[in-house]
Design brief:
Structural class: alpha/beta
Order of helices and strands: EHEHEHEEHEHHEHHE
Strand content: 15-25%
Shape: globular
Length: 211
């Protein structure tokens, strides 16, 4: 039985997708109990080739779907949700790299506290040992999941765990949105009384913009 489905929207980031998929097939979560769904959003680079190669090499683990009608990462995520078999849906992005225990820790936090959603920690990485001026300012105001959870009632989809029943109950992401769909979805649930918590140990790394 599949306990978790990881859903990744992908658009023209073949290098990032390659790193992400390598980290996802290496998760310490029990094999056979999770799946990885790449939802391509009409990429014109080799992103789809990479996803298809992983699907061939890991046929029981990696699946590939395509959303080529609506240009929106939320439309792509919705396409992945529609085929997901897991009880828990874990979201991350093609420019992120989860730690080895990411899936285990996120699912554990969701079950332990009987939450509806878990927002995991997002840690920025830099090209050099010290950030340049752009890298320094990029993390300062962005992707502070703990603050999002406590002060705004949502979690960014770069690192978000949601019970699948939440989508059955409240509907999918708003596919017409180009940004802010995670804010809208999170608020839709928390304002209906659903519990969203922050999990420090469910960690993904995210590169800061370097220019």
């Amino acid at each position: 039985m599949i306990k978790a489905s990881v859903i990744i929207p992908a658009y023209n980031n073949s290098d990032g997708l390659k790193r992400l998929l390598a980290s996802l097939v290496g998760q310490d979560f029990p094999k056979g109990q999770y799946e990885v769904i790449v939802a391509d959003n009409a990429s014109t680079d080799s992103s789809q080739d990479i996803a298809q190669a992983y699907a061939r090499n890991y046929p029981r683990l990696v699946k590939n779907v395509s959303e080529d009608k609506i240009q929106s990462s939320y439309a792509a995520r919705n396409k992945g949700i529609q085929i997901a078999q897991g009880e828990i849906l874990a979201f991350t992005d093609s420019d992120c790299v989860p730690c080895e225990s990411w899936l285990t820790e996120g699912c554990k936090a969701l079950r332990k506290d009987n939450a509806s959603m878990i927002a995991g920690r997002i840690e920025f990485t830099f090209k050099e040992s010290q950030p340049n001026i752009w890298e320094y300012f990029d993390p300062a105001g962005k992707l502070n999941q703990e603050s999002y959870v406590e002060n705004a009632g949502f979690g960014a989809t770069a690192n978000l765990f949601v019970r699948k029943t939440m989508f059955d109950r409240y509907g999918l992401f708003l596919s017409e949105l180009e940004s802010g769909g995670d804010y809208e979805f999170g608020r839709r649930l928390t304002q209906s009384g659903e519990v969203l918590l922050f999990a420090e140990s469910a960690l993904v790394y995210h590169p800061a913009r370097s220019g």
